[in-house]
Amino acid sequence: MSEDLIHRLRSHRSDKGLWAALYSKLRPAVYFAVYRRLRGDRALAEDVTHDAFLRFIRYANLDALDDEAHALAYLRQTARHLCWDRLRHERKVVSLESHEAQEALETWGADEGERNALRLDVERLGRDLSPSDQELLTALIEGIDLKQIAERLHISYGAAAARVSRLRDKLLHKINDL
User: Fold this and answer.
1) What is the pLDDT of residues 100-119, one digit of tens each?
2) The domain at 99-177 falls in which architecture?
C-alpha cells in the first residue's frame, strides 16, 4: 500500500477529500471483516464500519501510523472491538433461573413438585456433559450467581460467563435435537 494518504493526512488533517479517499480505499476491507464477524448482518455491518471510521477520525494518532496498512490494521481492530460490544449488548441470554421462567411457571400453576420435575429434566439433559459442565449446570440449578460460580471454579468472572453461555448453547442444541 502507498504511504501517500496517511502522510498527506498528517499535514492536511482537515482535508475532507483526503479523508474521503482513505475511506473509499479502506472501507471494503473493514466492511467485509465486520460482515463476517456479524454473520452476514448487512445493516449492522454498515453501522459498525461507519463507527470504526468515526473513531479512527476522532482518536487515531496519525503520527503513530506508518502507512495505510497500519491504518487498516487499526481500523480492523477498532471494528472488531465494536463488533464484540454490539454482539454482547444484542445477545439475549435466558438464565435457567430467569424472571421469565419464573413467571411462566407461575402462569402454568407449577407447584414445587413440577419445579423439581423440571430441574430433573434439565439434569437429565446434562448427563452426557463433561464433568466440568455438569458441575456448572448443578451450580446454575442451585441458583448460584456468576460471581460465586467463578469463585467456586477458581476462574475469572468473564470466563465463568463464557462457560455458562457455551453450556446454554449446548443444552439448546440438545433440546432442539429431541
Assistant:
1) 555 554 554 455 666 666 66
2) Orthogonal Bundle (1.10)
